[in-house]
Records
---
Amino acid sequence: PGPPEGAAFPPARYKPPATETNPALEDPTPDYMNLLGMVFSMCGLMLKLKWCAWIAVYCSFISFANSRSSEDTKQMMSSFMLSISAVVMSYLQNPQPMSPPW
Amino acid sequence: MKNLYIFIAVLFIPWSFSLAKYDEFEDGDDIMEYDDNDFAEFEDVSEDTATESPQRIITTEDDEEEATVELEGQDENQEDFDDADTQEGDAESEPYDDEEFEGYEEKPDASHSKNKDPITIVNVPAHLQNSWESYYMEILMVTGLLAYIMNYIIGKNKNNRLAHAWFNTHRELLESNFALVGDDGTSKEATSTGKLNQENEHIYNLWCSGRVCCEGMLIQLKFLKRQDLLNVLARMMRPASDQVQIKVTMNDEDMDTYVFAVGTRKALVRLQKEMQDLSEFCSDKPKSGAKYGLPDSLAILSEMGEVTEGMMDAKMIHFLTHYADKIDSVQFSDQFSGPKLMQEEGQLTKLPETKKTLLFTFNVPGSGNTSPKDMESLLPLMSMVIYSIDKAKKFRLNREGKQKADKNRARVEENFLKLTHVQRQEAAQSRREEKKRAEKERIMNEEDPEKQRRLEEAALRREQKKLEKKQMKMKQIKVKAM
C-alpha cells in the first residue's frame, strides 16, 4: 500500500524548526543551570565554601539532564569539571567535614 | 493489734534500708548488684558500731513511719519499734554508722578543695578523629548525586521505551498513508529512515511526508522529564501528562481560509492568549459544544459559525466524543504563525509569516504513570488526524463565508499597519535624514570650491522645490475642505 496518486514527488524534507528566531519556544533550564553552576563553583573556590561547591555539582548535573542533543558537549563538560574542581579544592584547603547550617 | 504493728514495722525496715542505699549510690554505682542481697555486705561489720546505728535508724525510721503509717500513739510505737528494731538492726544496719555518714558528707568538700585547676577538654578536629560518621553531610551529598544519576538512567530508559512503543503501534498506519516516514533532514536523498528522531531525553520527533493535500506532518512526542529528578519531585505536587503534538502543514491550494479550534476549555483559553491567529481572528470566548453533542469538557473557538457547522460533521463528533479525555486541543488555521512573538516596539515592521496548518495536541492517558501499552489507545486519534486532513481539503466556504473571511483578514492587516505606521514613519524619516547628512558631507569633502558652490546651490534648489510642493498640497487640501 502506498499513498494515493497525486502526492508531491520528491516528498518534502524535514526542516528543523528555527528556534533562533523564536527563543520563547526553547526551554531555558539547561542554560540557567549552567550559569548557576558556574557562579556557585566560583563562589565555592573564592570564598572556600564547601556547600557552594556541592550545589555547583548538582547544578551541572541538572543542566546535563535537561540539555538538548544539539547542545555543545564541551560546555557541559567544562561546567562539570569546574564544579568538581571546586569541590576538590575546598576539601584540600580545609579537610574538615561540612557543618550543617542549622 | 500489737502483732499488726510489728508486722508493718518488719515490712518497713527493708524498704527504708533500700531507700537509704539508693541515696548512697547516687553517683552511678551499679544498683543492680544490691537488689536481693542488699544486706549481705553488712554482715561482716563489727558489733561496736551496731549499737549506735539502730538508734539512728530508729529515729529516721520513726520519721518515715509517722509520715506514712497512721498509728495511734507515737510513744507506743516508739517502744514497739525499739524492741523490734534492735533485733534487726544488729544484722542489717552496721554500715550506716556515723563515721560512714560523716565521711560521706565530708567527701564532696574534700573533692571541691582539691579540684581548683579546671580540666580543659581539647576538641579533637573532626578530620583527625578517624571516623566516617563526622562526614555525614558529604555522604548525604554523594548519596543524593547517586540517586539523581539512578533516576536519570531509569527515566531516560522509560521515555525511550514509551517512544518506541508509540512508534511500533503507529508505524503501519503511517507507512500506509505517507511515502516518507522518518527523516532527519541530513541525508542527501529523501529516504525513509523509519526511525524516530531523538531531540532530547524527553522529546522525540517524526517527520512524515509524501501524501496528497499536505506538505508534511511533524509528530512530536513530548514526554515528561522523567530523567530529571527535580522535575519528578515537582510532578508529585502537580500531576502532568505526556503529550503528543501533531502539526500538519497543508498545501496552499488544499485548504480554504478559516480559523477554527476545539479542545478543553482550559487549553483553549490559554491558546487564545498565546497564539497569534486565534487571538486575532477568534475574538469571542470559547463556546460550549453541547449544541453538536460534544461533552461538556470540550469547547469551540471559531472565526464564524459557518466554519463550525462545516467542521462538526458526524464522524468528527464521533471522534471528539469518544476520545474527549485524550484531546487537549485541535486547531485548524490558514493564518498559523505560532505563538505571539514578544518583540520590542521598534522592530515589528511586518507581519509574521503564516502557513496553513492543522495542529493537534493529545494527552497520553495515565497522567504521568504511563506504560507502553497506553500507546495503543492513541491509534484512533491518528486516524482522526488523517480524516481531518482529507476533511480540510474537501471543506470550502461558500460565497458569504469567503467574503467574511477576506474582510477579516484585511481588517487584521490594516490594524497591523496602523500600529506600525508610527514606526514606519520614523524609519522613513530617519532614512531621509541619513541621505541629507550624506549629501552634506559630500559637499564639505569636496575640495574644489567651485564644485562646492554648485553642489550647494543644487541642494538649495531641491529644498525650495520640496517646500513649494508642500505648500501646493496644503492649498489643495484647504480648497477641497472648503
---
Amino acid sequence: MEIVYVYVKKRSEFGKQCNFSDRQAELSIDIAPNPELAALYVERNPVDTGIQCSASMSEHEANTERFEMENCGVNHVEGGWPKDVNPLELEQTIRFRKKVEKDENYISTIVQLGSIMEHCIKQNNAIDIYEEYFNDEDDVEVTEEAPSAKTINVFRDPQEIKRTATHLSWHPDGNKKLAVAYSCLNFQRAPMGMSHDSYIWDLENPNQPELALKPPSPLVTLEYNPKDSHVLLGGCYNGQIACWDTRKGSLVAELSTIEFSHQDPVYGTIWLQSKTGTECFSASTDGQVMWWDIRKLSEPTEVVIMDISRKGQLENALGAISLEFESTLPTKFMVGTEQGIVISCNRKAKTPAEKIVCTFSGHHGPIYALQRNPFYPKNFLTVGDWTARIWSEDSRESSIMWTRYHMAYLTDGAWSPVRPAVFFTTKMDGTLDIWDLVFKQCDPALSLKVCDDALFCLRVQDTGCLIACGSQLGTTTLLEVSSSLSTLQRNEKNIASSIFERETRREKILEARHREMRLKEKGKVEGEDDGQKEEEGALDLNELVAKAEEEFFEIVFSELRRKDAEAMKKKPKSVRTSAGVGGGSGGREGAMWPEFCLTAGVWVISSQ
Amino acid sequence: MIPIRTTLDNSTTVQYAGLLHQLTMKAKSTVRDIDPQNDLTFLRIRSKKHEIMVAPDKEYLLIVIQNPCE
C-alpha cells in the first residue's frame, strides 16, 4: 500500500524564500489493525538464536615508530674471576687455572667435548666441503637474459630544505661508501637557511649519513683521492677548493684562498696521478683551469685560460663545465665548455698558446659530461643538450656516433668500466638510459624511470654492477644492473673497437669529401674571370637556376592555356587576356580579382 | 668468562672467547626457540681464511680454529 501526500505549489512561487509557520498536526492516514491478517501466520516455537558469551574485543592498528639502531663494538676484557683471585697476579691466576683443571667436572666435560671436536676436525681434514667441482662449466653457459636494473637503496637528503645532488664519488677501496655533494645550482636562487653540508653515506645505512662535510659554501663537486681513501677534494659554489681528511672530522682540512681561486662555481675537480698523491686540478665557468697541490692550497701551481683563439685572454675564454683526465695519458686532458666545444689540451706544452691542442665542436649547449672510453682512450663520450655523442680524437670535424635528439636534456653520462660498448646517461625527466652499442645503436638497451624529478649526476662503481644517480631533490638512488650488462661478453672488445674504427673511417671519408667540395668552390670563385673554368661541371649554380625557371614557366603556361581553352568553351564572349612576363600560379576559374604571384622575383598579374 | 687453557696469546684468546661465547648463547637460544626440546651441540663458522669450531657445554666452551685443507 502506498502512502502518498500530494501538495500543490504555484509556479510563480518557485524559488521564493521559505516562510515557516506552525500549525496543528494533521492526521494524514489512519490504518486500523486487522486481526484477520494474523491468521495467515504461524507462531514459531522453539526459537533459535545464536549468542556468544566472550570478552568483547576491538581491533586497533598501530604503526610503530622507526627504530633507530646504531652499531657499536664491544670491548671484551677478561673478567669473572672469583673474589679471592686477583686477575693481575700471575701466580694466583695460574693457581686458579690449575685448580679448575683438576676438577672432575671439567675433565669429563673436556673429554666429551674433545671427542665431538675431533670428529669435526677429522672431517675437515678428510674432505674440503666447499670444493669447486665443475670450474670449467661456468664459461660455457651464456644466459640470454633481458637486461634489467633494479633499485637497491635510496639515500635521501636529511635536510629540510632539499638541495640538488650535484656530484657523486665512490670510495676507492671496496666501494662501500659514497660521497655526495649537495648544492643549489640555480643562480642566486638558493633558499635562505640552506645548509652547506655534503655527506658521506655508508651503503649499509641509508637512514643516516656516516659523515657530514662542512664547507664554507655548498660543494658542487666532490672526489675521493684514489690513492688515499681518507682524503676528499671538493669544489665549492664560490670558486674555492677545499680538502678534507675523514680521520680528522667534518671540518675543512685545507681551503684555498678566495683571491686565487676561481670566480665562478668549480664544476670539475680531478685528482692527478703523482708520486705524492696530492696533486689535483679544477675547472670552472670563469674560463680557467687551475692546478693545485693540496699541501699548499693558498695558490694554484698553474693556471691555463680556456681561450680557443690561443691568446690567453680571459675575456674570450669559454667557461668550463666538465673536466676529463685519464691516468694512462698523463699529459693530456680535456675540458668540456658551456658553449658546446670540447677543448683538448696538452699540459706539458711550453707556451700557453700551445697548451690548447685542438677543439671539437658539435653540441648546442653546455657539455655536462666528458669521459674517455676506459678500453679505447682515443674515443670519448660527451653528453650535452639533448644528445650523447661519441668522438674519436682523429676526427675533429664531428662526432663519429651520436644518439638521436631526446625529449629531455641529458645531464650526465658515463662509460661502464667493465664493458667497452656500454654507457649510461641520465636525463632531466628522471630516466636513466643504458646504451649497449653491440646490441642496438639507435635506442637505449634499457631505459628506466628512476624518479619523478630530474636526475643530475651519475656514477658507476668500479665493478660495473652498481650505479648511483643523484636527483634534483637530493635523493641518491642506488641501482644494480643485471649481470648481462656488467660482464664482458665474448668478443665484445673486438666488436666495440671495430665499431669505433668503422665510424671513424666513415667520418674521415665524409671529412675528405667536404674538404674536396670546399676546394672546388674556392677554385670556382677564383676562376670566374677565367671562362674556361665555368664550362666545367654541370654543377654551375646559375645555369641550374635558369633551367629550373624555364621548366617551371613551361608548366605554368601550358596549364594556363588549358584553362583558357576550357573557359572559351563556356563563355565565348569574354576575352581573356593573360598578360605576364612569366607565368603565374594557375588562376582560379571565375576569379574576379587580380592575382599577384611572386616567383623568382617576377611579378605576374592575371586578370579577367 | 675466563680462559683456562689456550695455545694463542692472551688478548686474542680473550677476544675469541668473549665474541664466541655471545654467539654461542645466541645460537643456542635460536635453536631452542624453534624447538624447545632441541639443543645446540656444535657450531661451525667457516670463513675465507679458516674455520672456527665451537663445542658448547653447560659451564665450559671448547674453541678450535683450523685452516681448511685446500
